[in-house]
Amino acid sequence: MTDAEKIAALSQQVTYWRNQAATLNQLLQASRNIPEKHYGKTTLHRDPTGNQAAAAVDKERKNRKAA
After folding, report:
1. Tens digits of per-residue pLDDT, 15-34?
2. What is the 3-state secondary structure (H, E, C) of the chain?
3. pTM over 0.85
């Protein structure tokens, strides 16, 4: 392997492990039920645990029963 090939392989591994760390961080944040504040270019989104979506469904079902 040339030096350029080694550098390319290492950079791919760095990218892979960085993505793995970001995904693990997302899972940890979701398990703690504390969404991360940063909503930029990450794998995270605003409602990782789905609480807002579940609350909206419950509210809709409640309103449907009342009608």
Report:
1. 999 999 999 988 887 777 65
2. CCHHHHHHHHHHHHHHHHHHHHHHHHHHHHHHCCCCCCCCCCCCCCCCCCHHHHHHHHHHHHHHHHC
3. no
